[in-house]
């Protein structure tokens, strides 16, 4: 019977992995005009800066980040959506949908995220859940499951309502979750998209309202928002050297300047450090009935971690693999995995694979091995 072990390896961040040259920027965060703000590293969720991050505020159209996540998880992007009269009459920013107009859900989602089409959020919500209210319940449930406990949605657009609120911290958590979905990342990072416009002699030409995509090196999201009640809001993202930073500014007088300063600040606090190289041997497993008695397990890709000055010792790995395995074994066969933990919470895992082939013993080899084992047992105990 195969027995599994969970070997805990504390990753020492004071070894050669972290040379003295690893010095992070010591400059403090910039002055902000935003009433609430936060900066996080996406993969770990580590908070690099926060200002009134848990105050409940109107999220305005940054709500649509959760709308997109919910649509991707509960809908089919290839579905054709028929616009209702209710959706077409939605107030505020618009994709200019008309009653009865048909568009694929994916096109609707681009219209929601690039030009903040409130009408499209209603059309998508009605298609998936039958009503905006039912869809908003899905949004809230998912937000709470992500860990955004101080958030409640009553609509899919972000139009003001006393019971529709979130916080800078919650919006950052929601966005970090969204970035795990490649299609989410693709949509929020798109600068320009052409989608159909049925009944017109030309298509819809959509240009993303999020200036971070062009103003920031590595800018890759996420969503603007504004209502009189919410003020100017922006959830933004930038990725450099495989480090994804997310910032949120709510009720900001200068949301672009605030956001760019915070993104730059966040990027300077994080350094990507190589933990494992592809091909590193992490474990040797005993092989039963094989021509070799063991096989080495190697990691099948490079592994890097985002480290800040204050959390060098918070990363650990758990090697999860059997102690024994039956032959035959082929090179590259998945046998276990290494799990990367940050503050005891898993944020990444990578497969461990066999480094070599191990053929199964022939019947003669098996019988000879049994005889030899018996002979050595007799010699040791009775000679």
Structure commentary:
By secondary structure, this protein is α+β, with helices and mostly antiparallel strands. Helix content is 29%, strand content 30%. It contains ten helices and 18 strands. The strands form five sheets. It has a seven-stranded mixed sheet with strand order 1-15-17-18-13-12-16, with no helix packed on it. Strands 3-2-10-9-8 form a five-stranded antiparallel sheet, with helices on both faces. The chain has a two-stranded antiparallel ribbon with strand order 4-5. Helix 1 packs parallel to helix 4, helix 1 packs parallel to helix 6 and helix 3 packs antiparallel against helix 4. The longest helix is centred in the C-terminal third of the chain and has 20 residues. 43% of the residues are buried. The N terminus is likely disordered.
């Amino acid at each position: 019977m195969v027995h599994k072990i969970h070997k805990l390896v504390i990753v020492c961040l004071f070894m050669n992995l972290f040379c003295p040259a690893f010095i992070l920027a010591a400059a403090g965060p910039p002055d902000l005009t935003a009433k609430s703000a936060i900066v996080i590293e996406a993969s770990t969720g580590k908070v690099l800066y926060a200002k009134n991050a848990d105050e409940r505020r109107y999220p305005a159209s940054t709500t649509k980040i959760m709308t997109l996540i919910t649509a991707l998880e509960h809908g089919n992007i290839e579905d054709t959506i028929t616009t209702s009269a209710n959706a077409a009459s939605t107030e505020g920013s618009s994709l200019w949908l008309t009653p009865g107009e048909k568009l694929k859900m994916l096109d609707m989602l681009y219209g929601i995220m690039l030009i903040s089409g409130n009408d499209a959020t209603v059309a998508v919500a009605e298609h998936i859940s039958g009503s905006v209210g039912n869809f908003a319940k899905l949004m809230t449930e998912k937000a709470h499951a992500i860990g955004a406990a101080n958030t409640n949605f009553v609509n899919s657009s972000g139009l003001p309502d006393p019971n529709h609120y979130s916080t800078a911290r919650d919006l950052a958590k929601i966005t970090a979750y969204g970035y795990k979905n490649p299609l989410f990342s693709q949509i929020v990072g798109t600068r320009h998209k052409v989608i159909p416009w049925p009944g017109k002699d030309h298509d819809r030409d959509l240009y993303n309202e999020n200036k971070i995509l062009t103003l920031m090196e590595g800018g890759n999201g996420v969503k603007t928002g504004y209502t009189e009640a919410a003020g100017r809001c922006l959830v933004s993202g930038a990725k450099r050297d495989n480090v994804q930073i997310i910032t949120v500014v709510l009720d900001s007088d200068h949301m672009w300047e605030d956001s760019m300063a915070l993104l730059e600040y966040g990027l300077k606090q994080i350094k990507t450090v190589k933990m494992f190289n592809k091909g590193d041997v992490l474990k040797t497993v005993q092989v039963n009935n094989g021509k070799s008695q063991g096989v080495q397990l190697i990691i099948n890709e490079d592994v890097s971690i985002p480290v800040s000055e204050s959390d060098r010792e918070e990363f650990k790995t758990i090697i999860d693999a059997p102690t024994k395995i039956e032959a035959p074994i082929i090179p590259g066969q998945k046998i276990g995995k290494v799990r990367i933990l940050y503050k005891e919470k898993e944020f990444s895992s990578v497969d461990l694979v066999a480094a070599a082939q191990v053929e199964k013993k022939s019947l003669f080899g098996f019988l000879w091995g049994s005889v030899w084992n018996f002979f050595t047992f007799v010699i040791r105990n009775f000679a």
